[in-house]
Amino acid sequence: MLSVVALSVANAQEAIRINPANPRYLEFRGKPLVLLSASEHYGSVINRAFDYETYLDDAAAHKMTMTRTFLLYREQQTARNPSSPCKPESPDYISPFMRTGPGKAMDGEPAYDLDKWNPEYFERLHRFLDAASKRGIIVELTIFSNEYSPETWSLSPLRAENNLQHTGAVDWEEYITLKDKELVRRQSAYARKIIDETSGYDNIYYEICNEPGGGVPGHATASDVDAWQEEMARVIRNELQVLKRSRLLSGQQAFAYGAKNGFPMDAVYAQKTFDIANDHPLPNTLLDGHIFEMGNFMSKELMLDQVAGYCLAAYSHPKPTVLDEDNTASMYRDTTGWTIHRKRAWTALFSGCHYDYIDFSITVGSEKGTKASQAGIRTWMQHLSEFMAAYDFIHSKPETDWIAEHPEHLVVSALVTSGHDYIAYLADGREVSDPAAGQPIEGRAVLNLPPGAYDVSLYSPTTGEFSPAVQMAGGSKEVITLPHFTNDLVIRATLRNQ
Known about the structure:
Elements: H1 4-12, E1 17-18, E2 26-28, E3 31-33, E4 36-39, H2 52-61, E5 66-70, E6 97-104, E7 110-117, H3 119-134, E8 138-145, H4 150-153, H5 181-198, E9 204-210, E10 213-214, H6 222-242, E11 249-251, E12 255-256, E13 263-264, H7 266-270, E14 276-279, E15 285-287, E16 290-292, H8 304-315, E17 321-326, H9 335-349, E18 354-358, H10 371-389, E19 396-398, E20 403-405, E21 410-417, E22 421-428, E23 441-448, E24 453-459, E25 470-473, E26 477-485, E27 488-495
Helix pairs in contact: 5-6, 8-9, 9-10
């Protein structure tokens, strides 16, 4: 069941792929692509009440290049972010499986029949993907998710108490393991159905599982979860092979609850399971023997030097890295929270990574966000997207040495393109707990550019405006006096035509 739009696009264009000129980036419809989004929290398909057309219109207007969508998992409604699109009221939750009864699921609605696919779900999924395709927006399709707790597990169609087949008679900690063969069979059938329905689109890639976790005492280990991920990857790739299609898989290796170095990432880059590395920036993340502390969940922590450090370590591996679902401050729908994520987004992209922030201002009935978020984070992300679109990031590499000196408190991230175009992002790295954070910064920067004549200008990430360019000679260290600025500033030096 492929829509006319999907078929016409798939036949006319090659699907999103790893960029052949730089494997840390992507290529889409013949153009280089960096993934960047302030995404709704991930209910475009599963939440009947969510107006995804309005959401996608606004995302396209603000130059978002991707969105992330859960295909099965829904969150338990809680006081924290109760209006998240991923928390639909039970009558508004649309499942891949039909609710037929007899009997009730644990949420009070009719029980699911795992032998019957839900036409409403797949029609909505196709309409959503068509709409995103028309707007040139990439969709990360998240097939499975960790269940996290007995409460969220109680909502799953694949829990035994919720379906007529009584499949899934396991604790939530065993859901993403190979322990229950019948559950794995049903998971595999669902995954194949998703691939059959969606792989004809050129604007999608798949995430196997959101935040896979193991290591709860008395239950599955992280290795058990990774074995399940390997099996799901095999199922997905085999189905793609049958359909003679090639699509990208993203994800992360399983973390261990409460463990030291609990978020290991080395295998994500070393193994072939994932074409795209997804990292949820959190504390205790291990890569290449280094631990990165990238901020606690919903903490209003900036940790900008750690974000930059992780991205630079990831860049040493020839695979795209997405800081997927950055949420250190996303529940704080205010200028302070949005400024934290603006800084983390610019730092990630200027360090060779991709970036996805959860914009909790987007809710059912407010699919464009609020007036404040429109003027704040959504406009700021547009500025970043437009800046990157005008820069040759494919032929660049992270290199900060050309900023030889700068005022204190700044974290510097920088890209250099073929020795002739230099961009640097200078951001106040002080945490919001520091009384001096956000105070004006002044001083000078010393630029160390190769010989040549350069046009040097400054750019504001908040206004999206460049200063008039001044000419500067390279070949020796040159000093520029920075204007007073708060939070962040970009310096660009471009070699003049000789």
